[in-house]
Amino acid sequence: MASRPLFILYLSLILFVYLLIVTFYYLNDTLPTPLPVEIKPTNEEIFALQDNVRIPFRTKMECDGYNEFRGIPFEQLWFWPSVRIFIGIWSVADKYEIRHLIRTLNLKQRRNLAGDIVDFKFILGIPSDNNPELKLKLKAENDTYGDLVIDMVENMNNGKGYYYWKWIAEQLDTTRYDYVSKLDDDSFIHFQNLALNLRPLTRGHLYYGNKSPHSFFIRGTIEVLSVDLAHLIASFPFKKREWNGPEDVQLGAFLNKHAKSLNTIGENCLIFTDPRIRKVRRKMWRPWASPNSIAIHWLKDIRAWKGVIDLYFSDDN
């Protein structure tokens, strides 16, 4: 008789182990598998996919932009009041050719704006190696074009974001603008499409751009703020712990912490990574561009810009 309780105990243990095994396999079969971490490709890998390759192009994106999703078709955006935008294009001191190309394309775009105002300047850090020849070249460039802002030692992820927005608030005449923005110099921005998509939006508390899914920040490809948010940033003293790190993440964290009201709008359909580089860069990727696209990111080599010129400037004289 004493063996019967032992038998029941053994049977219970076997059943318990069986249930554990079944549960383990069930959970592993039903829970989503985490995506692998994307390894950032080299510029050479990217350009190999862009060289002499046209950017895929269709008359409409495969997704809806923010306004279209809200029921405002692109054609109706022309009837909204025009906007005034300042764009600070973050560049590196020795990238003369890229700046000259961007400057040429942007000046052409400004001449064709339909009532909107878009001004731009290049934001550069002071070269840390104290290269006198480089400084002379920058001086000559600025004397010629007057569109360089050289205001701090180059430090992309160690406070440059804070000091840029502080410069906006304190050195720029912000009464002339509804929105101020930061753009990378490896991104093409379509001035008219940006202005049109901003027209229906609020002129206050706006934080706009391509938003990282399930996150709190706008990606640094282009970050658009209403003017009041730039003044909010400037009203706080610099704290390294708030601004030490990726500038787009730190900006999002700061605004979410300090802004009493924040209207964060993700424009994930019309701001995207170059469709040609899907194999090596999945973030922000879209399969093609369209006439309504706002920004195309990851144009690291000046020759990669040929695809943009073919799409949006081929009819220029």
CATH superfamily: Spore Coat Polysaccharide Biosynthesis Protein SpsA, Chain A
Give the tally of β-strands. 10
Shape: globular
Mean pLDDT: 88
Order of helices and strands: HHHEHEHEHEEHEEHHHEEEH
* Whole-number count of domains: 1
Describe the sheet with the most strands: 7 strands, mixed
Q: Whole-number radius of gyration? A: 25 Å
Distance between the termini: 102 Å
- What would CATH call the architecture? Alpha-Beta Complex
CATH class: Alpha Beta
Low-confidence stretches: 25-37
Enumerate the strands of the largest sheet in spatial order, edge to edge or round the barrel: 3-2-1-4-7-6-8
EC number: 2.4.1.-
Subcellular location: Golgi apparatus membrane
Keywords: Glycosyltransferase, Golgi apparatus, Membrane, Signal-anchor, Transferase, Transmembrane, Transmembrane helix
Transmembrane segments: 7-27
Describe what this molecule looks like in 3D:
This protein has helices at residues 3-30, 43-50, 66-69, 96-111, 132-145, 160-171, 191-198, 227-234, 240-243, 247-258, 306-312, and strands at residues 84-90, 117-126, 148-153, 179-184, 187-189, 206-211, 218-226, 263-266, 271-273, 295-297. The strands form two sheets. Strands 3-2-1-4-7-6-8 form a seven-stranded mixed β-sheet, with helices on both faces. It has eleven helices and ten strands. Strand 2 (117-126), helix 5 and strand 3 (148-153) form a beta-alpha-beta unit. Mean pLDDT is 88; it is low at 25-37. The radius of gyration is 25 Å and the shape is globular. It is of the alpha/beta class and 317 residues long. 34% of the residues are buried. The protein has one domain (43-312): Spore Coat Polysaccharide Biosynthesis Protein SpsA, Chain A.
